[in-house]
Amino acid sequence: MFPDIIKTERLVLRPWSFDDLPDVLGYALDETWGRFLPVPQPYSDADARRFIATQILLDRKLHPSWAIRHDGHTIGGINIRFSYDFRIGETGYSIARPLWRRGFATEAIKAVIGHSFEAHPQLMRVRAMADARNAGSHRVMEKAGMVREGVLRQNRMNRDQTLRRGLVRRIAIGVANVMDRPIDVPTRETVAFLSSHIAPGAAVLEVGCGQGHVAVALAQRGYRVTAIDSEPEIVATAVGRGAHALHATWPDFETAPVDAVAFTRSLHHIGSLPDAIRRARDVLKPGGRLLLEDFAFDQASPATIRWFVGTLRSLAALITPAGSRFVAALLAADDRIATWREHHDHDLRTIDAMTCVIADHLGVLETSSIPYLYRYLVPVRPGTPEGKASFRRRCWGPKQRVPTTSSSFASKIGSGVASPERVATEPQAGRWRGRNRCRQEFDRGKVRETCHHGHRSR
């Protein structure tokens, strides 16, 4: 549920009240403030009362609106309007002119957008518009993380509602800026990996889509994604998020040929591994690719485990270990390495076992390994926005504690541990060297070429 009051470092956003009338009238009388806004000029006391009354009467579920307060005064306003079953949000804002260029608008927008995505899991994007000549508002949107998407011509009439062609063409141009739903770091890395190996607009089948984060992110980038999962409740969540997700099992699922099959951390528990890979090979178009991303828990080195426990202890004042039985056990353990091994499912297939079966059917083009230890921090992070912000600064600020890339991971654990690598290999050389999460790419066309030259696929 959306909060009535939102607090940031310098601002308080609260519902409008007629107590705001003097402040609103004070800044709205400034014609420069209203130059690019659809407000009457000159602005009167009646206009201010009408505006506040309108904001108070808005349906706060569909169109919440706040007065922006700073140092005991109302310095502007911000609102967001939801449409399409809360899948799209559109925000608007204003700040008193004496307080321009101090970051207040950006601070307010970030707060509202952040709460919007938290309150409505199905929300896919938030957009905003400004007059094409309003460079200051464009900068505000960019600083808030929005990306310019397009220009809407003759989208708004001027104040006297005339449609004189030259004037309207100049005045009524809106620049649409959008912020897509922020994605978590694991999803972002997975999407980057997949999109780097799949042509734009390709048809992709994701096997084991979970809650649909990857499928939605790929679709937003223009891919034609079909996602499947064996758990109906999870599929329902993915559909609610906007994914084209179906309840189905692999390799039984029937599908038209696709450009890529992606196993996103799912192959380790699929029934018959040879059948799963053969089926993936059969549904790929010529030149299509199989992309695998999966865990390599068994390859975590003692040095890696010791470093990770040290990182957890350094964050002890911020995290809540009770949120994860594994983290709590690891922090309390005398033998951390044994505890690590005890808490990972030994019935799951190892990455080496998956690699061997895949290499029997497809040519290995690339292998790589990256850190994934930060996934354990998600369930133990603070619950409040302020705590989350502090947590992010400690983990991923200038003095980075928790790495998200191979190079930073190698620098943290030192030269005593082999650095994670991404290697392009021939099939017989394709073996994993990483520790936390691993990826492979396989090419149907490659195995044909290899077979033509009489080489075995392993």
Report what the structure shows.
The protein is of the alpha/beta class and 458 residues long. It has two domains: 6-180, 3-Layer(aba) Sandwich (Aminopeptidase), CATH 3.40.630; 185-452, Rossmann fold, CATH 3.40.50.150. It has 16 helices and 16 strands. A hairpin with a 4-residue loop joins strand 4 and strand 5. Helix 1 (21-28) packs across helix 2. Mean pLDDT is 77; it is low at 160-173 and 404-458.
SSE blueprint and pairings:
Blueprint (H helix, E strand, L loop, with lengths): L5 E2 L4 E3 L6 H8 L16 H13 L7 E6 L2 E11 L4 E8 L8 H16 L5 E7 L3 H9 L3 E7 L11 H7 L1 E8 L4 H11 L7 E5 L5 H8 L3 E6 L2 H10 L3 E3 L10 E7 L8 H11 E12 L6 H13 L10 H8 L3 H7 L8 H9 L3 E8 L14 H12 L9 H8 L8 E3 L12 E7 H9 L6
Parallel strand pairs: 5-6, 9-10, 9-12, 10-11, 12-13
Antiparallel strand pairs: 1-2, 2-3, 3-4, 4-5, 6-8, 7-8, 13-16, 14-15, 14-16
Please tell me the total number of domains. Answer: 2
CATH homologous superfamily heading of the largest domain: Vaccinia Virus protein VP39
- Would you report the number of β strands? 16
Radius of gyration: 27 Å
Helix fraction, binned, reads 25-40%
Kindly provide the name of the CATH class of the largest domain: Alpha Beta
The name CATH uses for the topology of the largest domain is Rossmann fold
Number of alpha- plus pi-helical segments: 16
CATH architecture of the largest domain: 3-Layer(aba) Sandwich
In which order are the strands of the major sheet placed? 1-2-3-4-5-6-8-7
- State the shape: globular
Q: Main sheet?
A: 8 strands, mixed
Mean of pLDDT: 77
Q: State the secondary-structure class.
A: alpha/beta
How far apart, in Å, are the first and last alpha carbons?
55 Å
What percentage of the residues does DSSP assign to strands (E)? 15-25%
Low-pLDDT residue spans: 160-173, 404-458
